[in-house]
UniProtKB/TrEMBL annotation:
It comes from Flavobacterium beibuense F44-8. Belongs to the RutC family. This is DfrA. SUPFAM superfamilies: YjgF-like. Pfam families: Ribonuc_L-PSP. GO terms for cellular component: cytosol. Signal peptide: none annotated. The lineage of its organism: Bacteria, Pseudomonadati, Bacteroidota, Flavobacteriia, Flavobacteriales. GO terms for molecular function: deaminase activity.
Length: 126
């Protein structure tokens, strides 16, 4: 059985999908981009600020499912420019304990929704 997870503390979906789906003890999140949920505006000041907004959006989705970053077992990071990897990784790493960080892949893609620079999705298990 699946349960749809939604919070107004993260951006509403911009298509036919949900912020996350809980199936049993496993949470599957949709990718988050740097939309400020308070005003719907993109946060693109610089790559660090953009990544922080993405992670804060993800934090809100996890919390809506009664989870935290410590429950994350897998993440996927999509970036538009691999030259931003170090800066993105610097912000991302602040949300995890390095000893228990999730598995992850980071891939460069040709284009992301709304022409953002980073999108992150996660799988978490309670």
């Amino acid at each position: 059985m699946k349960k749809i997870i939604f919070t107004d503390k993260a951006p509403a979906p911009i298509g036919p999908y949900n912020q996350a789906v809980l199936s049993g003890d496993t949470l599957y999140t949709s990718g988050q981009i740097a939309i400020n949920p308070a005003n719907g505006e993109l946060v693109l000041d610089d790559i660090e600020t953009e990544t922080k907004q993405v992670m804060e959006n993800m934090k809100a989705v996890l919390e809506a499912a009664d989870m935290t970053f410590s429950d994350v077992v897998k993440s996927t990071i999509f970036i538009s420019d691999m030259n931003n990897f170090g800066k993105i990784n610097g912000v991302y790493s602040a949300y995890f304990d390095e000893k228990t960080a999730p598995a992850r892949e980071t891939v460069q893609v040709a284009c992301l929704p709304k022409n953002v620079n980073v999108e992150i999705s996660m799988v978490a298990v309670k």
